[in-house]
Design brief:
The chain is of the alpha+beta class. It is built from twelve helices and seven strands. The protein is rod-shaped, with a radius of gyration of 35 Å.
Length: 368
């Protein structure tokens, strides 16, 4: 982390005005291993010029106007150091962007907004099991300035390539500047939440049917508890992505933010509304899974009680012949009916009659 500490002394807003170049990773079509996915300058909502590196992009922006959009994927400290110095990025935000594993948030450092989004991807599976992975998470981090936006992506999903192409097909929206890109990213992330929520709802419905169906997958015996608990853990992971993002979306949609165009702020309200809907769904998922898990455990307890009643009933029935055999098995010379020729048949008849009577009583009371 020595490089991050050195950045504290190196970062100065004047660097952006002076145009001091620094070490950069390779440009848009780099050699294998470069963190830069795409880098372009936009003016009037249209992409101008050929592919370029971050230093060249900012030189064009300072000379001719517009804004630069630099996209990176899992950069290292060394790859990000020159960009951080050139754009005057705060070392704390740089550290978060490099190491990832952050909560969704919105922070302001001088003339830069730093936002973190958690991306969610639904993992398709043929059958939900106690070890199924239902959701995968990634991260998209954005540095927003007056004339640039830097996106840093972590994880295998949440690619912004299609989003960039879609925005390039809408010059009127892209002409509103970097805040339009920030809104598009937030909108894509939240739309992904909606799709994942619908898919998770199907999994919960499947588990609920299995638990309460007599022909379910062992629901009456508690066999679904592992699946329910695993699904609950995945929903919790989903909740950790959605809930912390609500406050940043409210700030972007309700308060005036200098780097966000007023026209774009209206669009953030729509994103915030969708996020509220997803949050309500995720909370309801958690509550519903709690209820299903409790019902499943109650069913297992009822099934165990039924087994115990059956065992107790048969033990009571077996106790009758055991008792009679124990009495007549004693080695006494003088016992009534011991040498009577009808003694054995009578004992058998009495034993069977008592056992049948007890069995019918237990059957009538639902114990058997």
């Amino acid at each position: 982390m020595s490089m991050i500490r050195d950045l504290r002394a190196a970062v100065r807003p004047a660097l952006r005005r002076a145009g001091t170049p620094g070490p950069y990773p390779a440009p848009c079509h780099p050699a294998a291993g470069s963190a830069v996915v795409d880098c372009a300058v936009y003016r009037g909502g249209r992409r101008v010029g050929a592919h370029c590196g971050p230093a060249e992009a900012m030189r064009r922006v300072r000379a001719e106007g517009g804004f630069a959009w630099i996209g990176l994927h899992e950069p290292t400290e060394q790859e990000f150091a020159g960009i951080a110095e050139e754009f005057g990025l705060h070392p704390l935000a740089v550290e978060d962007a490099v190491h990832a594993h952050q909560r969704p948030k919105l922070e302001r450092y001088d003339d830069t907004l730093f936002t973190v989004f958690k991306t969610i991807h639904y993992v398709e599976h043929a059958e939900l099991t106690a070890t199924s992975e239902v959701v995968q998470t990634g991260e998209v981090m954005c540095f927003l300035g007056e004339d640039f936006i830097i996106t840093v992506r972590h994880g295998g999903q949440g690619s912004l390539r299609a989003l960039r192409l879609r925005l390039e097909d809408d010059p009127e929206l892209l002409a509103k500047g970097p805040s339009a890109v920030l809104h598009a990213i937030a909108d894509q992330v939240v739309d992904g939440y909606i799709a994942v929520a619908d898919a998770v709802q199907n999994d919960i419905d499947e588990v609920e049917i299995d638990v309460f169906s007599p022909a379910g997958k062992g629901g009456s015996r508690g066999g679904d508890a592992g699946r329910i608990y695993q699904l609950k853990r995945e929903v919790l992971e989903f909740k950790r992505a959605v809930t912390p993002l609500m406050r940043p979306m409210r700030l972007l949609s309700e308060r005036t933010v200098r780097l966000v165009e007023p026209d774009i702020q209206k669009y953030f309200r729509d994103v915030a509304d969708h996020l509220d809907r997803v949050h309500e769904q995720v909370v309801s998922f958690d509550d519903l899974l709690n209820s299903i898990l409790q019902a499943n455990l109650a069913q297992a307890s009822v099934a165990q009680n039924e087994d115990m009643r059956k065992i107790t009933s048969w033990a009571a029935i077996c106790a009758v012949p055991t008792m009679i055999a124990g009495v007549y098995g004693m080695n006494f010379d003088e016992m009534p009916e011991l040498h009577w020729k009808y003694g054995y048949p009578l004992v058998m008849v009495v034993t069977v009659a008592i056992c049948v009577t007890i069995h019918r009583g237990f059957k009538r009371n639902g114990w058997l």
